[in-house]
Amino acid sequence: MFILINVVSGTLILKATREDDTFMSTILTSIELSSYLDCLKNTIKNLNYSAVYNIIFFNVESFYFYFNGMICSDEKEYTVEEILDIIEPYIPFALTENTIDFFLEATTSFTDEEIIEVEKKLNTKAKVDFINCLRNIKTEKEWLYVKSICESIRHYKENNVSFASYFL
């Protein structure tokens, strides 16, 4: 379910939870988001590739599904998939040929089930791209840049959700 709210600068799309169709106004704090991102970074950085020396990943999606089940190197014992689900609203979105295809597919989706399926595909694609981005980070400067983008998205949502929830 989507709630559309028009604001002066354009259209703001906000998600509502599917379980009870109530507005989801919980936003991670900056510290929480940073902690989850650091956990992902450390898990990728400390990944023991020798344990999978005889496995060939045909593409980034296959690596993603393998990596998804790993326990994040943090005291919270979340899997990578659980952390990605938590930080999903703050993951930057890369516009690629595949994502354009998803958008086009969404324009021809008319039932709630079709729209939900397209949304799931798009969310998975964004997570795969994000993990691939994290895997390719080489410097601390690049890492801080990715974190700042996620924080900017979080900050934008925090400021706009409080404004939007006023009207609900």
Your description of this structure?
With 168 residues, the protein is mainly alpha-helical. The protein has 6 helices and 2 strands, in the order ββαααααα. The protein has a two-stranded antiparallel ribbon with strand order 1-2. Helix 4 runs antiparallel to helix 5. It starts with a strand and ends with a helix. The N terminus and C terminus are likely disordered.
SSE blueprint:
Layout: E1 2-7, E2 10-15, H1 30-45, H2 60-68, H3 80-87, H4 97-107, H5 112-135, H6 140-165
Strand order, sheet with most strands: 1-2
Overall body shape: globular
Helical content band:
55-70%
| Overall pLDDT metric | 75
Secondary-structure-derived class? mainly alpha
Number of strands: 2
Radius of gyration: 17 Å
Please give a handful of descriptors for the protein shown.
disordered N terminus, single chain, globular, about 170 residues
Sum this structure up briefly:
By secondary structure, the chain is mainly alpha-helical.
